[in-house]
Design brief:
With 528 residues, the protein is α+β, with helices and mostly antiparallel strands. It has 14 helices and 14 strands. It has an 8-stranded mixed β-sheet. Helix 11 packs across helix 12 and helix 12 packs across helix 14. The termini are far apart. Bound molecules: adenosine-5'-diphosphate and magnesium ion. The site of adenosine-5'-diphosphate has 22 residues, from helix 2 and helix 4.
Length: 528
């Protein structure tokens, strides 16, 4: 079309994904030098955990955060793991191309978008002009390779500066990543330490160390048991949209019928369920799917979302910690006097499976405060920001703690863990979980169950305490009573004392009923 005389046209162009995130860093948590440093540590540690625990490897992760030279805001972050490594050919793309990764399957992992580490690379290269250094080797590989690379932001492709390859001398496998960025460590030090500590709580099977100019903190694994790794699953029919259908149809062959598609591509749908659905929705089950037009697809997607006859989403894609491991983690990090954990059965919202786990810790080294200390996790990621907006906070505020014999200030810690293939985060920051009714309900049930157990424990201590107090009082008056009794009855004073002691002991034994009881009382008395 010719341009009309005098008409001014804009200049039009595309924007690469790398450019987009370069311009909108705050979307991915890189909003200022302090937060960027925190987020960099997080992205690297989470990749390391994904690369180990998902594949049955007990994680050994070391994190180093140090200024490049003294009093500089140029900070080096180095994270090394013993994970599965990255194949040599894939290194440039996984570290140098926004939206490239291995986690675009339906399975619970910490990373999901293929974005995290590239944000760290972008931030580092634009603030210090330093390339990312990556050293890696896969489990069966005989070589180790070292890359230095930048991201070509305009084209969203890696720009390789160097590649070194050498022979492996031992059986090392894993990945070491080093970045230099402008960051403010003193401002974010506490958060980084807290993040590592909470990661150690939710991954008690991991050994994690953090070295900073202030020294080294190390959390050694307290368990060699890994939770069952998540398996790759299929999408649930209730979570489907037109685009998903189109993609599935594009990949299928021309003979495939609607019945075939439904019964092979979706979670929990067999031929019988698929037939029932087709009848309900008014679709011919034998129609060839390549023949479906756009309006058919729209109707199909809508009906699939509405249908009530689907089975619940399977939870094989999820990997909760389990009550035992969660308790181990809480014991190791918070050192409470009492701990209990509840892992709820799988549930779902909008076709997405999820599992809620909760732990309560009480007493011991947990400091007393006016509200419960809340530690939130999503897919084993500690959430440190935006607590006030989180569904767990809402649930905790709604509970009347008096029912459970807890009066604030109290030394109470609550751990909540939501795992899902799609955690319903509030906003793009991914730091708070939204109050989706199904999730809220599960958290409430789990906290109440755990609180009931805590109440039983507290009642027991109260009772034991009462017994002990009586014992002390009786012992205090024992001599006087025996003397008076002896005077009246003529029985030897020592014999009467022995008798009283024996009666007292039997009474205590009967009430405490077990060794565990005795231990609880001793602990409780020491801590009061
Ligand atoms: P995401 O974690 O969301 O997939 P990232 O940009 O953080 O996105 O990472 C991209 C990909 O790089 C990952 O999917 C993974 O395949 C690979 N990767 C990153 N770090 C490691 C690591 N430490 N060990 C093994 N693979 C890794
Ligand atoms: Mg990641």
């Amino acid at each position: 079309m010719p341009v009309a005389k005098g008409e001014k046209l804009e200049k039009y162009e595309g924007l690469s994904p790398a450019q987009f995130f370069y311009r909108n860093k705050e979307i991915a948590g890189f909003s200022n030098p302090a937060r960027a440093l925190y987020q960099t540590v997080r992205e690297l540690v989470e990749n390391s955990l994904d690369a180990t625990e998902t594949y049955g490897i007990l994680p050994n992760i070391s994190v180093i955060v140090e200024p490049v030279n003294e009093d500089s805001e140029k900070i080096k972050v180095k994270v090394e793991d013993n994970g599965i490594g990255v194949p040599i050919k894939e290194v440039p793309n996984v570290f140098g191309k926004v939206f490239y990764g291995s986690k675009y399957v339906l399975r619970q992992t910490r990373g999901v978008f293929g974005l995290g580490v590239k944000m760290a690379v972008l931030y580092s290269q634009i603030t210090t002009a330093t390339p990312i250094y990556v050293k890696s080797s896969t489990q069966k590989s005989r070589i180790i390779y070292e890359y230095k690379l930048f991201i070509d932001i305009e084209r969203n492709i890696p720009f390789i500066l160097s590649l070194n390859v050498y022979k492996k001398k031992d059986s090392w496998h894993g990945t070491a990543v080093e970045l230099v960025l402008r960051g403010n460590f003193s401002q974010v030090k506490k958060r980084v330490e807290e993040y590592i500590k909470r990661t150690a709580l939710i991954a008690p099977y991991a050994t994690i160390s953090l070295k900073t100019p202030d020294g080294e903190i190390k959390f050694k694994r307290v368990s060699r048991k890994l939770p069952e790794p998540p398996k790759i699953g299929k999408y649930h029919p209730r979570g489907v949209d037109i685009e998903t259908l189109k993609r599935l149809i594009r990949k299928s062959n021309s003979k495939m019928t609607l019945l075939d598609l439904l019964s092979t591509s979706f979670d929990g749908v067999g031929r019988i369920t698929a037939e029932k659905f087709c009848e309900w929705a008014g679709f011919n089950p034998n129609i060839k799917i390549k023949k479906l037009n756009l309006s058919d697809l729209e109707k199909l997607a809508n009906k699939m979302r509405e249908y009530n006859g689907w089975r619940r989403p399977k939870s094989i894609t999820l990997s909760p910690l389990g009550e035992r491991l969660l308790k181990e983690g809480v014991k190791n990090i918070l050192k409470p006097e009492f701990v209990t954990a509840v892992t709820r059965p799988p549930s779902s919202y909008g076709g997405n499976p999820f599992i809620v786990e909760v732990a309560l810790g009480y007493g011991g080294e947990i400091p007393s405060s006016d509200a419960p200390l809340l530690l939130r996790f999503a897919n084993r990621i500690p959430l440190l920001y935006d607590e006030g907006a989180d569904v767990s906070k809402k649930v905790i505020n709604s509970i009347d703690w008096n029912i459970y014999k807890i009066k604030f200030p109290a030394p109470l810690a609550i751990v909540t863990h939501v795992c899902s293939t799609k955690v319903p985060f509030k906003g793009v920051g991914k730091e708070a979980i939204a109050d989706v009714p199904e999730v809220e309900k599960e958290i409430k049930i789990a906290i109440r169950e755990a609180a009931r157990r805590l109440k039983r424990h507290l009642s027991r201590i109260e009772k034991m305490f009462e017994i002990k107090r009586r014992e002390v009082t009786i012992k205090r008056y024992m001599n006087e009573v025996s003397r008076s009794l002896s005077y009246i009855s003529g029985i030897e004073e020592e014999k009467l004392k022995d008798l009283l002691l024996r009666i007292l002991k039997e009474d205590i034994k009967r009430r405490e009923s077990s060794k565990a009881g005795e231990k609880i009382v001793k602990k409780a008395i020491v801590s009061r």
